[in-house]
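User: Can you recover a sequence for this backbone? Please restate the input before giving your answer.

Assistant: Of course. Working from this structure:
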């Protein structure tokens, strides 16, 4: 239901905008450093996730309760933990989509110079796992 409203798109644009501006223009500019790495992106992306994920998960179960669909959802033949896991995986999928949208940063830096691919993919894995931790905390708080 995130993509039915503009909330998911706005959050994606804000995440990509903040991480892109700090990667390519402000702070640790890739072009001024003369070094092909994604250190600037990974340095700002975890802060962007810190702000992005609570905005994403704060309404996962609360919105179901507010709209009255939680009782309908729980009356089905699914258990409580299946509902919570479904909300977790749906939110984590949106995090994965947001990280996948930053792959042009990886491709551009790899095209500009000799990028350490292992470090870059490890950074992406770390961001995904950090996003999973933030999502689990957010769904628990919701």
């Amino acid at each position: 239901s995130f993509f039915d409203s503009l909330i998911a798109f706005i959050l994606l644009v804000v995440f990509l905008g903040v991480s892109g501006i700090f990667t390519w223009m402000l702070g640790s500019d890739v072009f001024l450093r003369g070094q092909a790495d994604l250190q600037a992106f990974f340095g700002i992306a975890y802060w962007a996730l810190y702000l992005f994920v609570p905005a994403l998960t704060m309404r996962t179960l609360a919105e179901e309760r507010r709209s009255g669909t939680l009782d309908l959802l729980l009356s089905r033949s699914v258990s409580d933990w299946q509902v919570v896991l479904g909300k977790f995986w749906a939110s984590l999928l949106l995090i994965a989509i947001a990280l996948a949208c930053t792959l042009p940063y990886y491709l551009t830096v790899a095209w500009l110079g000799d990028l350490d691919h292992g470090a870059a993919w490890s950074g992406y894995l770390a961001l995904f796992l950090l996003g999973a931790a933030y999502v689990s905390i957010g769904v628990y708080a919701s």
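That completes the design. The chain has one domain: 2-141.
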